[in-house]
Amino acid sequence: MKRLVLVFTLAGVVAPGIAVRAATAATVCVGPGSGCFAQIQPAVTAAHEGDTIAVAAGTFAGGVTIDKSITLQGAGAHRTTISGGGPVVTIFRPTAPEGLHVSIDGVTITGGVNNTQPDVDVTFGGGVWIPTSQLDHPPFNGQGATVSISNSAITANVVTSSSFIPANTFCGKRACGFNTGGGIDNGGVLTLMNTRVTGNTAGSTPSLASAASDANAGGIDNRFASTLVVRQSVISGNRVIVNSPIANGAGDGGIGGDGALTVADSTVSDNVVEYTGSMDFEDQSAGSGGIGFGECHVCSPRPPVSIRNTVVSGNRVTAVNTNVNSTPAAFAGGIGAGAPALLDHVTLSDNVVHITGAGFAGADGGGLEVGAPVTLRDSMIARNSVSAEAPLGAIAFGGGIAMFGADLTLERTRVIGNSVSGTGAAAPLPLGGVSSVFGGGISNGGGIPPALLTLTDSVITANRLSASPGFVVGGGGVFTERGIVSTRTVIAGNKPDDCFGC
Questions:
Q1: Domain count across the chain
Q2: Full-prediction pTM beyond 0.70?
Q3: Are 253 and 298 part of one and the same domain?
Q4: 21 or 45: whose pLDDT is higher?
């Protein structure tokens, strides 16, 4: 098979006793050319550390495992396709996985269906799987390979499960199974540059039912102790769907996880989280349509999160529960922030949270749910919505932003045209309180320990509330039970009022 060797030799005067060693690198070709490998996996097997595998235009078989530090160079995302397998590409070696460095450029990774790895009831990564260095037990921590993916597309991959963990074992009284990372599951250090992660699914598809109770990260999962950097990329149209008989939770339509996260100059749009269930456990939920991070509250310290110059738009969270005794929740249409974060020049717009319950239902955070200290600078929170409907009572709040017991600082930020609605009986709720709708723009409190809300040079306007007769309604612009620290900020033109508690 063709192996083009490029030799670079040091020349010149060398001090006595210092050896001169030739550094070699090779290019191994894949494609129809003379002497080239027909498929990628044999080329990886033949390659050495530091080599480049040049893949020609065409479609090549997935199910590839990369266990060497190499560069995989395609002919362009529209010309070179790696298709099939479960996952399509795995980047891992058992010995010193953290020392593995892989670069992928100019390919499309598609058609992966992972329902077996690492197990039939716990599956990670439909398109690309970068395992952590510790695979033997949850939370599967320990840093894996360092990987860069550029000028590529990861699209139409699925992570699902073909079996579940029986009740009265791992998950207590209920059966369970977990699907994570429809497009990518990252357990290492991953950088995406000029790459599209689109149309991937975690959980069920219309033609493929999942046995899972919980699914997360339709686009990209980023594990605790891992690092994800997304630059000049698009994360769009990914889905998390949980609708099995043991359905418990769904989350993180576009990007999710607990690792260090940087997103810059990118778009996270039109991702969807869908939960449909009938169990009566109290913690059933759907959340974080666009981005969710820091949800592991026992993971310490929580890694840093930065989102800059990014649009998070058109993401949706929908939940339906058919059990009258259940108390389901839906939250965070755009971003669910469970770790300290800086959002700078971010647009959060047209994200949606909607829940329908057979008994009670609760929903919050159309644009953003704040579960850890968050600062927004020079940003826009616009036209996000929250709605909850249930015959026995509902609670809905935070059309633009819902503060969940954590501080929020807004600097030079506009909160405009967000909405909250509630439909159902005006009745006492199972967990306390009464049916209510509040915080069309921002909510802080309402049964949740109030935190510190600081507003500087900001505008909160044209937000609104609506509800069935008898609901408690207040804070069309801002609802707060702790007051606010406000400097040169306008709160005006909201309905039915501008501020409750200011």
A1: 2
A2: yes
A3: no
A4: 45
